[in-house]
């Protein structure tokens, strides 16, 4: 018999991922997805697709054989792993965490679950919420080989377009995700400064963005558009593509690990400083590209562009 699947965490990333998973299960006439979230009503659209709501995470664990999670930070992962191990029996269950956490947090989760006969897969993903909704994420997976094979059919062409295998050491997948974030945050930093330069010199941003597209392709163009469309500061009530507070958390992990290994990440340090200033200035409803607003202010312009929300 096919395993029963569970899901916990329905933020801007998790809802799109869980929806794609439920659609797949339904298309294959498989058991419906069991889900929960701190605010359960967040899953109403998932319920309309046929998924089954549960009152809490423990109930999801009891009902499911494979439990996917997409949560906000390390503390929440620690919390739900403790809840999982409080369930009468989790022997043989597979937990797949798709969040970005510190490698030590992933290793701790794996060890705690192993003590209770369960398996942990560390599987952070690359891609913002629009990519999650499209089912085109890149999964970075580490854990026991047999568990990875069991989980794979629910990922490729369902929630993701590819899997980067990192072996059995769950720390490695977290490290690769954090390394990738160093590149992403540095690119966003460079794009922010380039657009401000173009605005201040009178060049304008349209031709710069065309150059970015022609030279570097659609991925970098999509990062640029988060700036030029004003998505760096979306309207109140509109979730950002990737929240600034989560980017700050991920960037903090990168800097902490770099410090441990005597590595300097100058562009990341500057990006984090700008992100934190943006959050302090404009609140938490900001995208990770909100460093652009601070770069504007540093150049004597308003934090808000003509396409962003105005406050």
Order of helix and strand elements from N to C terminus: EHEHEHEHEHEEHEHEHHHHHH
Terminal CA distance reads: 55 Å
At the fourth CATH level, what is the homologous superfamily of the largest domain? NAD(P)-binding Rossmann-like Domain
**Count of discrete domains:** 2
Segments where pLDDT lies below 50 for 5+ residues?
none
Based on CA inertia axes, which overall geometry fits?
Answer: globular
Count, helices? 13
Reported CATH architecture of the largest domain? 3-Layer(aba) Sandwich
Radius of gyration (Å): 20 Å
Biggest sheet, spatial arrangement of strands: 3-2-1-4-5-6
What's the CATH first level of the largest domain? Answer: Alpha Beta
Strand content range? 5-15%
Q: What's the pLDDT, averaged over the residues?
A: 96
Provide the helix percentage. 40-55%
Structural class: alpha/beta
The main sheet comes to: 6 strands, parallel
What is the fold-level CATH name, i.e. the topology of the largest domain? Rossmann fold
Number of strands: 9
Keywords: NAD, Oxidoreductase
Family: Belongs to the HIBADH-related family. NP60 subfamily.
Protein name: 6-phosphogluconate dehydrogenase NADP-binding domain-containing protein
Pfam families: NAD_binding_11, NAD_binding_2
Structure write-up:
This protein has helices spanning 12-27, 44-48, 57-63, 74-85, 103-114, 129-134, 145-151, 170-201, 206-216, 218-228, 244-260, 266-282, 291-298, and strands at 5-8, 34-36, 52-53, 66-69, 94-97, 119-122, 125-126, 137-141, 160-165. By secondary structure, it is α/β, with parallel strands linked by helices. The protein has 2 domains: 5-168, Rossmann fold (3-Layer(aba) Sandwich), CATH 3.40.50; 174-299, N-(1-d-carboxylethyl)-l-norvaline Dehydrogenase, domain 2. It has a 6-stranded parallel sheet, sandwiched between helices. Strand 8, helix 7 and strand 9 form a beta-alpha-beta unit. Helix 8 packs parallel to helix 13 (291-298). The N and C termini lie far apart (55 Å).
